[in-house]
Each structure stands twice: as C-alpha cells, then as structure tokens.
Amino acid sequence: MKYKIDVVRIRENSIQLNGWVIGKTPESKAAFEVLDQNKKPLEIKYVATRRDDVSQIYYKQVYDRDYGFDIQFPYERGADYWLVIHCDGKTARVKYNEELIAKRASVAHKRMEKIKDLMNMETVHVALEFGKKHGLKALLLKSRHKLQGLDNDYDYGEWYELTRPKEEELAAQRETRFAYEPLLSIVIPAYKTPEKYLREMLDSILAQTYRNWEVCVANGSPKGEGAIVSRVMAEYTKKDSRFHVSELGDNLGISGNTNAALEMAKGDFIILADHDDTIPEHALYEVAKTINEHPDCDVIYSDEDKLDMDGGALFDPHFKPDFNPDLLTSVNYICHLFVVKRTLLDQVGGFRHEFDGAQDYDFIFRCTENAKEICHIPKVLYHWRCHQESTASNPESKLYAFEAGARAIMAHYERCGIPAEKVEKGVDYGIYHTTFHIQGDPLVSVIIPNKDHSVDLDLCIRSIIERATYKNLEFIVVENNSTEQETFAYYEKIQKEFPQVKVVRWEREFNYSAINNFGAAFAKGEYLMLLNNDTEIIAPRLFEEMLGFCQRKEVGIVGARLLYEDDTIQHAGVVIGFGGVAGHTFIGLHEAENSYFHRAMCAQDYSAVTAACLMVKKSVFEEVGGLTEELAVAFNDVDFCLKVRAAGYLVVYAPYAVMHHYESKSRGLEDTPEKVARFNREWALVAKRWPDILQNGDPYYNPNLTLRKSDFSLRDLLKEKIGEQNKLPEIKEQ
User: CA dist 550 to 356, 413, 526, 561, Å?
Assistant: First the structure.
C-alpha cells in the first residue's frame, strides 16, 4: 500500500484531507476511518476522486478508477485524531493535531516532501524505464522539469501579503476622488448563512477604500430559519444606511434569491457576491478606477483566490487571461469578481431558474455576448470561501451544476449561431469539451515541407491517411533541396500509391516562410494545414476538431496539442513573452498531469500557436499575405498568428486535436555563429514588428505569472516584478 495526504486544512470545526491511496494492483480498494483521541470512530464525510496522475506513475497507465479521496471530520482545538487507512490487508495511521498540521503546512516541509517523492523507488524505477525507452537526453529534460517544480510552491499567503496594497496606498485610495464615481450595488443572496461568515463578508465591504456603494441582501432563508441573517442585517442597516435587506420569507432558489437582490439595486454597476465570501479593501476602488479608465466598459472581472473556512488562510489563486471567449466555453473561468453595468443587466435580464447550479455561468455568457467592452483586472479582488459541499472544493458534490453548465454553453452557441453538436465532460468536472457540426465536406490542403527524411515523411502521411476519420484531404509536399536519391524514389512511389499526394519543388535556399507560401499557391483546399514532416497523428478526429473551430467566421487559425514521443507536452499554445519573445506553454508536462486550472486541456484563444500543426482558412492566409518571408526560420508562426489577430480573427488552441511531434528532425540546432546571428536578427525583427504586445504583455496570459518557466507558476518577486516584461532584444538598423 502506498498513500499520500496532499492537502490538510482546518475548517470551521472540522478537518479536511485530500490525498490518494493505491494497493498492489489497480483493483485494490482502500477503506478509511477516523479515530478521536479516545480511539473511538468518528462520523466522516467521504468522497472518492480521480487521480490519473497517480495511476500513471504507479501502474504505468490510467485506469477508470478513483484512487483519490476527500475526507472531512469534526474537530476540536487541542485534540488529537488519527486517519486510519486499510488496503490489501495492511493498515496505516496518520496523526493530526494543530501543531502537526502547522508543521506540515510549512514551505520547507512541502519542499522536503517533494524531494522524498523524487527519491522514492517508484519514481526512480519510472525514471530508469523512461531513460531506457527514450534515452538519456530525454530523461535529463524530464528531470529538469521535475526539479524546477521544487521551487514552484511559493507560499501563496506570503506572496499575497507581499503584493497587496500597503496601508499608505490604502490611505491614498480613501482620499482619491474620481471624475465619475458610480454607485456600485453589491447584491448578495443569503440562505441560512452562518453568522460568522455573513459578518466577515459585510465587514469586508465596510472596510472598502471606495465609498459610493450599497449592499442589497435578499434573505431567502425559510421562516424561522433565517433569524440569524435577519438579526445581523438589522444591526448593519441600523449602523450604515448603505446596507439594505429584503426578507423573502422563503427560499426562491439561487436564481430567485439573486433576482430579488437585483431588484433592490439602484446602482450604476452591479457586483455579484456570495453570502460567505469576502473582498479585499481595495476591490471596489479598482472597479471604480477601471470604469473611469474605460468609459465603454460594461463588464468587469478580476482574479480570485480561495479562503479556508476559518478565514485564516488564502490558497489556490486563479490568475486569469483577458477576455477569452473560447476558454469561457471550456470552463467558467470568469466567476468572481463579476461586475455588470446596469443598462446591460436591463438588456439581458437576470438569472434563470432553468440553469440553477450554473446560473452565474449562463448570466456571464449573456452579459459578455452583448458587452461593448469587457475589462479584466489582473488582481485578486475576491476571496472565495471553500468548503466540502462547494463546487470550489469538491466538484463531484454538485454534479447537477456541471450538467446545467453544459446546457448554458449550448444555449450560448444557439444565440451566437454556432453549430455545436454536443457539449461533454472534459478532463474533469467543470471542464467542457465541445464537438461542432462540420459544415459540408471542405477540402483541406495539408502542406508539408521536406528535405530528405523520407521515413519520417512516410510515417506522417500514412498515419493521417490510415487513421484520420476525415478523408477529404490533399497533401502538398514541398521538396526542399534533398540530396538523397532514396528521397526522390520515395516521392515517385507515394504519389503513385496515393493520388491525393502531390510533390512540388522549391529550388531556392531554405526559408520556412517562403516554402509554405510556395506550397499554398498549389493548394486547392478551402482550408490549409501547415504541418511538419516529423509528426504523427494520435487523435483520429484531429481534422474534425480543428475544422469545428476554423469554420467559425470569427476564427482565423487553429492549433493542435503536440506531444513528444514520451507523451509529454511539446505544444499547448504560445505565450508572447516566454523566453523574451515567445514560447510554448506547459513544456514537459505529462499529458496525465494536471496543468494550471486544466489550461492544457481547455480549448481557448491564444496570441499564437505553432505552425508545426496549424490550420488556417485559405482566405485568411491570403488576406494577411501568408507568412513573412523575412523570418526564414524563427518566429515566423508567431508573426503569422499576430498578423491574423491584427486582422480581427481569433487564434484557437484545440486540445483534443493531438499529434506526436518528434521535434526538429529536419532542421539542425542553432549551433553556429551564422545561425545564432540569423536567430538574433529574426528575434529583433519580431520585436520591431510587434512592440506593443512585447512591452505590455500577452493579453491571454497574466502579469502575476512568471515568464521564466512555462508552467504558469507565480512570479518569483526576487527575480521578476509583477507585469515586468523580459528585456527586448536590441534592434540594430541594417
């Protein structure tokens, strides 16, 4: 038996544990009990959870079983408790008390646990097997990725304290007067709210540095059960006239209660809040500041984190991108803080009962569909209290919420005229995967540059012809100065075997941009796919996944998820700023591992994707003049994507379109003075062409996240200031 407790939190009169257990075989089952200090069993709340990462490590593959657990049990301060785990006839006991929990929560302890994990026999065995299969170089790359993760667990509470406004800044905010000071109405549906939580929410509003606000609480607690809420609100309304309460006398449901609060609101802008959460002192100031800086803005959202039940610890910060419509259809990433202009609210209407469980998701869709401007504040302005019954902590406890979310997404597609076939559960509950209707049977022209490497090319073409479910394809192989006779013999053979394959000859020096532009001139398809010759299809529906996005009028380019041979990520989107200019996200992360808020497995908009596998409308390709031929080798795909975005189109990453990419077999490293000089010239050219995004940051990333690594970890404040960009390359006039 192997086990690990990943998370331990003291809640309101309870302890919550998250972890995993595995036995000798994938079929082994674990049982749990909790004993008090008298060794008597306690009643526990237990929920089984998926841990595909654990299955992958210990059993070498993912099994459709729950190896994880979420356990909550009652707790008294100063007492000792034991978690008892039974599996395969063995028993393990883990002791818990305040002192031990505090010790195990320290950053030093977490790092030591990570080091132990790296040194255990299973990890060593996996590493040895990996090295045998993929070679020393690949093992070193993977090991570096793991070691880098040792310093990723920045203590977020400490990080937050270092970045939040200091008292002198808060004092200055209190003295600030804006040219326009809108009335901000905070609407709160209340339902049998614990007094402690309600007071904490109301007190956090009283502490705001911006003063022109009101609070509208609709008490939906049934008669006789809402006395606490009524008493507390009576106290606050007497103390401050900005507090208002409506006693509903009955529970109208989350939508009905929220609508009742909305009806009370008189503000110019409406802010949604839950009855047991809190907001930091500067939240409303930042909202008012944004409204003044963006007069056309009628939807605002911020970053957020989670607050434990005792209110003593912040964790799990969510640093979001600017408005990302395709990410929103993958997950409700916006959530809190959410602000909507009154005139827009009147236009779209309030919350709808039929979407209860995902009523806010449906509301956000309707607001963003009709908004003139959507503003994102890249600061944590909302603390979301997390408990076991909440979808913030335990998704499986509210399965109905995610079913309602799927319906909200389909309703959004219907209003927007997007032909979606179905919305299904993605990699986890709350993560959605949309299958779109393919309109017609359009020809896709697959353009593949090639110099020798006929074995790689053959694997690439045959994998698509044999495995892809979409068949209306033509292949344009752009021959680029091959020297091996076998290559030309192969060209003859493959064209005879497959009439949809055509070889055209590029007879000038290597220039990736010019070669693809040349190939595109022969294309008959309505859609072009730029594809490297060192790729192999994994997902049979690769073309359907990409076409589904590319057929939408607002989409210009679609990129795929590319994996190295060892099934770690090579490409899951591109962030401008990584490495100074641009770099791939989540490099080296195994596909079974969880990425930052599941971003690697969420369809979403990015500033760029790699041309190793890229689909584009031929009309869009021609509209922007194809690839920029001054960029012969490096950054041509980044520049191409930025040109398409500048023309008003979206660039979408499609995670379920998957290929292996064996990475630059056809091109050497930048290992000569000439190649380094060319690389630097192209780097400088990109910086000159796109200075705004390089200086201001990628809108699809977040300035609180690091540019030094690809894993979306927090910025190391000793090395990177928040929002600070890497130095641009020096541009020398030719």
Answer: 32, 15, 11, 15
Whole-model pTM: value is 0.81
- Alpha carbon distance 114, 151 (integer Å): 10
CA distance 681 to 691: 15
Q: What is the DSSP string of 52-65?
A: HHHHHHHHSS--SS
> What residues pair up with 305 in beta bridges, in sequence order?
383
Q: What is the rounded average pLDDT of the residues 698-720?
A: 90
Give yes or no for a contact between 592 and 62, defined as CB atoms under 8 angstroms apart: yes
Q: Give the model's pLDDT for residue 550.
A: 97
Per-residue pLDDT tens digits for 197-230: 999 999 999 999 999 999 999 999 888 777 889 9
691 token code pair: 């200075």
Write the DSSP string, 82-119: EEEEEETTEEEEEEE-HHHHHHHTSHHHHHHHHHHHHH
Residue 409 carries which side chain, given as an amino acid letter? I
Name the token pair of 415: 């209003």
Q: Which domains does the chain have, with CATH numbers?
A: 2-105 (2.60.40.10), 167-393 (3.90.550.10), 444-696 (3.90.550.10)
Task: Check residue 733 and give its pLDDT.
Answer: 46
- Confidence class of residue 152 from pLDDT cuts 50, 70 and 90? very low
Please tell me whether residue 593 adopts helix, strand or coil conformation.
coil
Transcribe 302-361 into DSSP letters.
EEEEEE-TTS--EEEEE---S--HHHHHHS----SSEEEEHHHHHHH-S--GGGTTSHHH
Question: CA 572 → CA 209, 548, 606, 725, 726, distances in Å?
Answer: 41, 18, 10, 21, 21
pLDDT score at 544:
97
Rounded Cα–Cα distance for residues 411 and 423 (Å):
11
